[in-house]
Amino acid sequence: MPINSKLIKIASVLALLCSTTAHAELNVFACEPEYAALAQSLAPDAKVYSATTAMQDPHLVQARPSLIAKMRQADLVVCAGADLEIGWLPMLQMKASNNKVRSTDTGLFYAAEHTKTLDQIDNVDRSMGDVHAKGNPHLHFDPVKLLEVAKGLSAKFIQLDPSNTAAYETAFARFNEQWQAKIPVWQAQAKSLQGKKVIAYHSSFRYLFQWTGIEQVADLEPKPGLAPTSSHLATLLARAEKGDIMAIIVASYQDERGAKWLGDRANLPVLTLPMSVGGNEQSTDLISLYDNVLVLLNGVQ
Amino acid sequence: MSILKTPLSLVAIGCAFAPITVLAEDSSLTNPNISAVLDGYYQSGDRPMSERAEGFGLGETELAISANIDDMFYGKMTAVLASHDGETEVELEEAFIQTMGLPEGLSVRAGRFLSDVGYLNNQHLHTDSFADRPAAYRAFLGGHYFDDGLRVSIVAPTDIYWNLGFEAFKGDKMRAADEHGERDFSNIGVYSAFTKFGGDIGVDSSWQLGLAYLRNENGKLLGEEEDEHVDDEHDHGGHAHSAKYTGENTYIADFVYKWAPNGNYKYQHLTLSGEYFRVTDIFAMEEHDEHEHEAFSNNDYHQGWYVSSVYQFSPNWSAGLRYGQVDSYEAHGDHLDPQKLKETEFSVAWHHSHFSTVRLQYTNQQGTNFDGFENDNIITLQYVMTLGAHGAHQF
């Protein structure tokens, strides 16, 4: 039966193809560079792609062809969640037609679902600006929360690729050990920042300020998502003239012009902090990102 | 009265869903998104083939509901309310389901939806940077071509984005004029095949190229010797989404290039785009008596193109420049008369937030042989605003 033997050959080739792809490295699509860095630490063999850089506002990303192509090939999509990517992720999911990364039961991971976010709101009204009902999504600047996320992400890797469980467990143990060792060091560095007052852009550093004890007394944005206006800056200048502000803080993807205008007039230092890994030369991974941010903050005191 | 009842019931459906969204933990993926678009304008003149008339008016007021139906299907409905001459018309612009769980990058869309040919066609009008679609769209696709049909498309697992799709549509809106209503039209009138490629150039720039072919079984206009004049069957000012100039074969090529400093779209970005249309096999003579239905065709074709450049120089301001033209033919009995339309347009838009836009647009139009047309300068002042849980935008 030549036909049957042909079929068997085809089937065995197919089986071989399938089994080789199953053992191939995982393709990870990260929405933001902090989650690309985290995924790489927890799955050193994975092929990790970051959809954005620390110079790009993750609220406003184009659902561009290259991202569709990357998501099409992904085994796992890792994002901050809490609606941070609501303006582009659903479009990518639809266009990429990749059924592996559509549900958090399988290859989709939202960091915000693995810890408790700050500032959750029951009723969202657009007059409040572009706010997130599910809380502030910029949660990677709280070391304790990030460790909770790491735990969840490691479990996700094991769920998707159980044959390499031991490797993922080893990688998590290493990350956990390094991170736990760093937390008291960072806390010591943050001690002198406690109670300091700053004016910042958006609520980008909400979590950083929360655990360092810095108080953000005003926002350069009149409402979340709206660019600084001159009338709003004038009220900030009046606030700054009270003389209790340490610095004006913007993230690496934010426009410095409003901050500089205010800084010049109020005689305050303007500090651009890396929003994520790659936000400046020193921030090459999550640990150096935290190190660098604390050095920069301590430098303006 | 049925005209009035329908929009009200649509609003009622919207309201019925609304409380669910507010209470929902995840309104984005598991519960309906409800959104509305408000569009109003004042215009100092008429553009040919446009739905916007001189004076005060409303554009397309849109109500959309979309959601994942289950883990396999996504569904969307978009109703458009348009008022013309004191009458409110409701039209379903989209009512489709799409598969979300097929393997190998495959997806199937069925129902009424926007065709994926060209660059602008699958985008909603309210995301445009100009008050009207380019003249080529108004001439050959009725502004934007949506229809009842089926689409199958596939995304290749490659680092360069590559998408391939096929569509079949009823095609009523794309039918050639049929003065006597005697013509035997095909039920499945329109087939299309399209492909798109795209990628990034460094971190600053992204691009996409598209090619499409559209076969219109009912697109060839059949002229008759005895007629003195084939009437323009499209009543001006009506809410006609029909293509004004058709042919059997349409070829479309499109490109878009976007640039933002560091790839950060929040503050500044540039969009360059352009499309070219060529519509062939547009006309045949039917000679009833001597040679039985021997149709003689000619080699004339319609064509149109535009290039557009839009720059957002701050989160609150953007400006755009667009030039486009259409070269088409109007049938008069047994012969075709050439027509030409050229549009040069400049628009400035103020965006108070991501959801509200006020636009001022200037159009210089020049043409020959368009019915009732005169060279003109037109000013349009327009607002476009979105309410509710608004879906993500396409590239």
From TrEMBL, chain A:
<dbReference type="InterPro" id="IPR006127">
    <property type="entry name" value="ZnuA-like"/>
</dbReference>
<protein>
    <submittedName>
        <fullName>Zinc ABC transporter substrate-binding protein</fullName>
    </submittedName>
</protein>
<dbReference type="Pfam" id="PF01297">
    <property type="entry name" value="ZnuA"/>
</dbReference>
<dbReference type="InterPro" id="IPR050492">
    <property type="entry name" value="Bact_metal-bind_prot9"/>
</dbReference>
<feature type="signal peptide">
    <location>
        <begin position="1"/>
        <end position="24"/>
    </location>
</feature>
<keyword id="KW-0732">Signal</keyword>
UniProtKB/TrEMBL annotation, chain B:
<dbReference type="InterPro" id="IPR023614">
    <property type="entry name" value="Porin_dom_sf"/>
</dbReference>
<keyword id="KW-0732">Signal</keyword>
<protein>
    <recommendedName>
        <fullName>Zinc-regulated TonB-dependent outer membrane receptor</fullName>
    </recommendedName>
</protein>
<feature type="signal peptide">
    <location>
        <begin position="1"/>
        <end position="24"/>
    </location>
</feature>
